[in-house]
Amino acid sequence: MTDTLRPVHVIGGGLAGSEAAWQLASRGVPVVLHEMRPVRKTEAHDTDKLAELVCSNSFRSDDAEYNAVGLLHEEMRRCGSLILRCADAHKVPAGGALAMDRDGFADAVTEAIATHPLITLQREEVAGLPPEEWDSVIVATGPLTSPALAEAVRDHTGEESLAFFDAIAPIVYLESIDLSKAWFQSRYDKPGPGGTGKDYINCAFEKDDYRAFIDALITGEKLDFKEWEKNTPYFEGCLPIEVMAERGVDTLRYGPMKPVGLTNPHKPERRPYAVVQLRQDNALGTLYNLVGFQTKLRHAEQARIFRMIPGLENAEFARLGGMHRNTFLNSPRILDGALRLKSLPRLRFAGQVTGCEGYVESAAVGLLAGRFAAAERLGQEISTPPVTTALGAILGHITGGAEAETYQPMNVNFGLFPPVDDKIRGRERKLAYTRRALADLDGWLKN
Description:
Blueprint: E1 8-11, H1 15-26, E2 31-35, E3 58-61, H2 68-78, H3 82-89, E4 91-92, E5 97-100, H4 102-115, E6 119-123, E7 137-139, H5 147-157, E8 162-168, E9 171-173, E10 183-184, E11 200-205, H6 207-219, H7 241-246, E12 274-280, E13 287-290, H8 299-306, E14 317-319, E15 322-328, H9 331-334, E16 340-341, E17 344-349, H10 359-377, H11 390-401, H12 426-446
Parallel strand pairs: 1-2, 1-7, 2-6, 7-17
Antiparallel strand pairs: 3-5, 4-5, 8-15, 9-13, 9-14, 10-11, 11-12, 12-13, 16-17
């Protein structure tokens, strides 16, 4: 039957596009995956690898019982996700989070896609709307969609794309960190997948040093916005460190620099005033990224200011931070419940271009788009996941659950799920969400 099926075209070889292609091919549907790198580069990517992680190397919490993104991990595993399979195979210690060696992860995804007999990988830019003879297309071009394609979609829909800035955190070499001041410990000593409970490097501030650091962040020289960027809002879940500092002197102490759950063995008699955490970024354990330290500071200023962090006085940076403009569609207004463009149903969208936020969420929407397109190609009824699942909650949000007038990027969270019994509170309430979700997902997969 495969010989008689026309291929589905997937545009974009990021997390969503790679996952969509894998889901299609796994169901016997031939795929042509179009990836424009290295023919055309982007502002954020460094390589031509599929599923390259351009910011953090973490998929966040892997707790499938009490955390919504951990639940999403488990749902995707049960759906045969390539992205989760490769992440699990290349995980590095990260407390309760699922983090991975970014190069090993991207290499594994690229190898799986390139060697699958039903997937043809073409390195080319799709400049404009796909040809009419492509009767089934998944556009998974991510937040850095090529200008020609983005403009063509805007022209067709009559909608202005919304936009926000996403930021990249710096990475330092382990050997340049002063461990006579810093120490290894996960918050609350919590172990995670591949971890020991001592997975982060922690750098503690005294009060006066912290205040000086905040002042430096606020006054440090920053990159100027281009004229067309000036009214673009930030995504609240990925704010630059200096923007958070400007919101109040204690904002960082209650955010990414909170000192709770940590004990400085060099000064055990008192709790740190504030703590910077660094997370392992590769399998060798030679690189660590500054958690929550996305920034628009100029590179020279980053090196100067971040070396004010105790333990990083002599830090050598493998990569400094940066920012790029992300664009996404007003999906609740222009997409149907199966991720198709209402005005041009042969086009289906997936990943961050739909307005979902986060690595895992992007791959999850790619997974759904691939399954929907496969069912359509095979003449089967499209079955959407129950809204009580993490997959269904994300899908529902981006295809109508959110207000189109105020639509902004969203991570998966329990607030997107239909409520459970109001009498259940705290951790038990979260457990009720996850148990219901996995039971309903298993029922959906059996259909």
